[in-house]
Amino acid sequence: MGVPQNYLDRPVAVIGAGTLGRRVGLMFATRGGLVRINARNADRGAAAVDYVHQQLDELSGTHPGWVRGRAEFAAGLEDAVADAWLVVESIPEQLELKRSIFAHLEAAAPSDAILASNSSSYPSRLIVEGRLTTDRMLNTHFYMPPTQIAVDVMSCGDTSQEVLDFVFATFPEYGVRPFLVRRESTGFIFNRIWAAIKRESLAVVAEGVSGPEDVDEMFKLTLLTDFGPFRAMDQVGLDVVYDIEEHYAQENPALPPGPRELLRRYLGAGKLGVKSGEGFYADYPKTQS
Q1: Which residues pair with 180 in a beta bridge?
Q2: In 3-state terms, what secondary structure has residue 98?
Q3: β-pairing verdict for 114-117 and 177-180
């Protein structure tokens, strides 16, 4: 298939307008180009576009290499991917839903467009199984840009070396740092390590050993970080955290159920984290979407 031609003159499409989707969109709007954000919910899509533009305004001048681009909401998948050089899928961690989206993307996106999944736990091999152009499909797993700029890059097993080289050459132009996952790994690199920390933190609270605030404070004091695992989970969204934990449990039934039971209690109370105004912490603005 080769690699995308004239990519600086073509848009990037982000499928999904959640916490990470909008942040991915932000990074690809820093070269003066266009990002189209597609979401099933028009209000969420509009909020994602507003987020990108607000962040571009607030961060103007703090990143000398950035050139202010723009974002727009595209209600239809076909409209979102029209002439795109890159499509990043950032929808909930549900395998069949992702598989369905990739089937649509393969048919609708330009034939030279790179089709990437931002999945935080599923290898793209499972997502793209049965597709005809898997040489252009891969995982590009972002963390929380623009603060956390690392990106896991993992082949679906068929991704062409040309596409991988292109990703490693172009992504740094947008302020992110790609890291190659050298063999298939559920959880990729950092998330595989982080999953153990997160799960044990949840277990400590589920067993009544400590509370979220104390765990976070000890974590910060000991590792000299600005955040702890519970504050970080609130940022990601407890619904997303739960979906990921369910996936890990499907792969490894021996994992203890306590962490997932604790998450279910919070989800049952409507406490999703920052996105709902309350999670393990209750000090978030209620107006965030």
Answers
A1: 153
A2: helix
A3: unpaired
Please give the domain boundaries of the chain with CATH numbers for all domains.
7-180 (3.40.50.720), 190-276 (1.10.1040.10)
pTM of the model: 0.83
3-state secondary structure of 31: strand
Residue 236: C-alpha distances to residues 3, 36, 145, 146, 283 (Å) = 32, 22, 12, 14, 15
Burial 66-100 (b: 16+ CB within 10 A, else e): beebebbbbeebeebbbebbbbbbbbebeeeebbe
Peptide bond into 146 cis (omega under 30): yes
Output the CA torsion sign for 61, 167, 73, 79. positive
Q: To 10 degrees, the CA torsion angle through 129, 6, 176, 89?
A: -30
- Separation of alpha carbons 19 and 7, rounded Å: 25
Cβ atoms within 10 Å of 65's Cβ, excluding its own: 10
Burial of 60 (0-12, 13-18, 19+ CB in 10 A): exposed
* Cβ proximity of 167 and 178 under 8 Å: yes
Instruction: Render pLDDT for 119-135 as a digit per residue (tens, 0 to 9).
Output: 988 999 999 999 999 99
Q: How much of the chain, in percent, has pLDDT values that exceed 70? A: 99
Give the CA distances from residue 97 to residues 84, 122, 128, 242, 255, in Å, rounded to whole numbers and listed in that order.
21, 12, 12, 17, 25
Query: From CA 10, how far away is CA 85, in angstroms rounded?
Result: 6
Amino acid found at 49: V
Q: At a CB cut-off of 8 Å and minimum separation 6, what does 12 contact?
A: 25, 28, 33, 34, 35, 36, 84, 85, 86, 87, 88
